[in-house]
Amino acid sequence: MDLDLKPSGQPAIAFRPASARDAPNPSWGDDVRCSLGLAREYLLGLREADGHWCAEIEGDTILESEYILTMHFLGRIEDPRVEKAAAFLRRCLLDDGGWAIYPDGPADVSSSVKAYFALKLLGDDPEAEHMRNTRDQILRLGGLDATNSFTKIYLAIFGQYDWERAPAVPPELILFPNWFPFNIYEMSAWSRAIVVPLSVIWACRPHRPVPEHAQVSELRTPQDEGSSVQAAERLTGWLWARFFVNVDRLIKALERLRLTPLRDRALRRAESWILERLPKSDGLGAIFPPILNTVMAFDCLGYAQDDPIQGSQIAELEKLEIEDADTLRVQPCRSPLWDTALSINALAEIDPAKDAAALVTAAHWMLDREVTEPGDWRVKNPETPVGGWYFEYANEFYPDTDDTAQILTALSKVPMSDRDDSRRREVVDRAWAWLLGMQNRDGGWGSFDRGCDKVALTYIPFADHNAMIDPSTCDITARVVEAMARWRLDLTGPAGRQAIAFLHAAQEQDGSWFGRWGCNYIYGTYLALWGLSAAGEDMSAEWARRAVGWLRDRQNPDGGWGELPSSYERGAETGRGPSTASQTAWALLGLLAAGEQASTSVARGIGFLIDRQRADGGWDETEWTGTGFPEVFYLKYHYYPIYFPLLALAIYSRALDDRDGAGAQET
Description:
By secondary structure, the chain is mainly α.
């Protein structure tokens, strides 16, 4: 597929003012450029030795808790790193007891149970104030039975929960043919990678006893011992939930009767499935939960810790550790391709010729990591050729559309020699062939797979992590549309028309868009406006004015914007929260895309960024603005409050320059 692609060489956003606004004070252009210069120098200074960027990704304390429990599973509980992880847990404890899944959030029962268990295992006195408070919180939240499925299975491993009451995850799932409605390739890529090794654990039911002092029977509350049906808004959802609960009961009955004739075959297939996905990968799926499950599954299958395969997975787990003098925290994964693409994307908007050496070096680093072999996505999409990029350092089986679209946009901005450009075109051509082949029938894009949208699967008892499927999302689709505009693909063709129609149809009544991978409606609205503006959509139309009105209404008195993860919860107010640098930048970018560069809202937002910039050029941000699984797992990307404000300042600075140039011509 030769697309004969060529970057546009022009900004994707051509400013189209929708109406006259109060213009900012012209004298502050120097302040904007000074702030921009500081941020630029700061970001350039964060490069790794070979020219790429990679920031820390922070997740909640479930990572450290599971790390401690895994070290006990492996017989390494005396390792000094374990106590450092416990010290980090204690540091994150809420004042009234328990642990939250994002800063200043409410206590979460699953996170709190795992942390309480881990600390009790390490000898924390259950009558100490922090343990008493946490125990009271857990009991108020429903105790052990209120935890999620994965927590119950992990507790069962250590004898703290009855295997019979944990949801069934039978390894026979892997034997279902691809045409069967509930085969593993109908699950999201991350769920698939979690579930396959977890099914080995469930089948083998390993037992790692803990000392008497570590038992957590005090966290049990009187409950119905049967499986419950998940809450469902519609009758069809209730029926699916009831169906899967009955299937769960049947599986357990067959298990008790030892009627599992395919068990050995299923375990062998699960083992080979995992092994096939380890080469060219930072562990299975290159994310913490599948890596942890793989280590436990391999132990169940008889792999010794000094076995090269098991040892390699333990090493991948260790690569996620960040250890300092007193504490140890664990990353859910690493994000080099994402951080590098977004850093290029921002820096190239300032003076690409000035930073050409840095940009070209980083671009080559990304080009070297092109996916060259088919992965899981090929099962549901056999005709699409190989291409694209992943998120981590190595994850060949799991390229994703979000990274691929952002990398394509970044590559379009890098000034390259004719020789370098020839290579870039070849890689970009393959990436576009893959990315366009991943478009869903509804016109949008999911993350890792095409057509992964069977809502019925979300009612499986072990699917309560709220991420069982991977349907089209507004934020990714908008990012693809922007990339199409940057590379001058025909947006009037079927792919472009359907993507634009998907975005328009997904707009909320209040004018906003939902954000799947960033928190939340501010993120989705910024990307939707950015993508639609890049596509040449009319920014004076009623839909765009509604979006602008929503963003302006959500601006805080200090001039910034913020949105808490609680906005994902049903009935919560959207677009509200303490102002953050990254979310302020997103709102500004959305407004700038809609032609609001001369508005008071934009001026106040830019002022917020300038006033709160540190002397070194960065911004402080304690809030978490990234999303893993809505309502379940959130993220803090440590470079978000650097390259997003930098991008907003760069776009705004160019608007000031354009205005000054136009004024000079009029004079």
